[in-house]
Amino acid sequence: MIIFGWRVVFFTLSRGVFHCPECGGDREYRRRYGRNFFSLFFIPVIPLNKSGGEFVQCDTCKGRWNTAVLEIPTTAELAQMPAMLLRMAVSQVLRSGDPAHQGARRRAVTVVRQAGDAGYDEAALDGDMGRSFDQVRAEMARASSALAPEARESILRAAAEIALADGTLSVSEEETLAAVGTDLELTRVQVTGVVSLARQSSGH
């Protein structure tokens, strides 16, 4: 009778919600890893080396995926994406111009609320303007590909109209709009066209 051997024991590192490729929708997951154990009478006794790398397991279909699957936006995140990107875009252009201009501030708050963030206010706007520019750019670049080009152009136009609320665009505002357009994965031609439309509608 064999009374000792080896077996793999799986441990859960974290839990959450992700978009399961197999189920085709948002599901709960467990982020896990396996570890080899020396077992005695089928009971794991002595931990040995890890068995493979970390993986994500769907609680519904039990499918296992590479941890990169967690980078795919969930349905809930996609619904919040336009408002989130708008927050970042308008706060960046506002602080590159006149961050105290009341007309521009009110418009910034309004467009973010209309995009789905009903609780957005001027205090939140000030918080967004206080964030690191490089950090915001990295987040925008990471999230923008989830939206259609038309949605990304709409976000840039809203940002340009806010920048134009206090008059003609300054060099700093133009540079920021170009950076926002790049982070939204728009071409230079698209950025130029969107900003031109914003200028026409504002009379500048």
Describe this structure in words.
- There is one protein chain.
- The protein is 48% helix and 25% strand.
- Strands 1-2-3-4 form a 4-stranded antiparallel β-sheet, with no helix packed on it.
- Helix 1 packs antiparallel against helix 2 and helix 5 crosses helix 7.
- It is built from 7 helices and 4 strands.
- It starts with a strand and ends with a helix.
Spell out the key features of this protein.
alpha+beta, 4-stranded antiparallel beta sheet, 204 residues, 48% helix
The gist of it:
The protein has 204 residues and is of the alpha+beta class. It is built from seven helices and four strands.
Mean pLDDT: 87
Give the helix/strand class: alpha+beta
N-end to C-end Cα span: 88 Å
Largest beta sheet: what is the strand line-up? Answer: 1-2-3-4
The H/E string reads: EEEEHHHHHHH
- The residue ranges in which pLDDT falls below 50 over 5 or more consecutive positions are none
Largest sheet: 4 strands, antiparallel
What's the gyration radius in Å?
24 Å
Helix coverage percent? 40-55%
What layout of secondary structure does this protein have?
Layout lengths: L3 E17 L4 E16 L2 E16 L5 E2 L9 H22 L5 H13 L7 H8 L3 H11 L5 H15 L7 H13 L4 H15 L2
Antiparallel strand pairs: 1-2, 2-3, 3-4
Helix pairs in contact: 1-2, 1-3, 1-4, 1-5, 1-6, 2-5, 4-6, 5-6, 5-7, 6-7
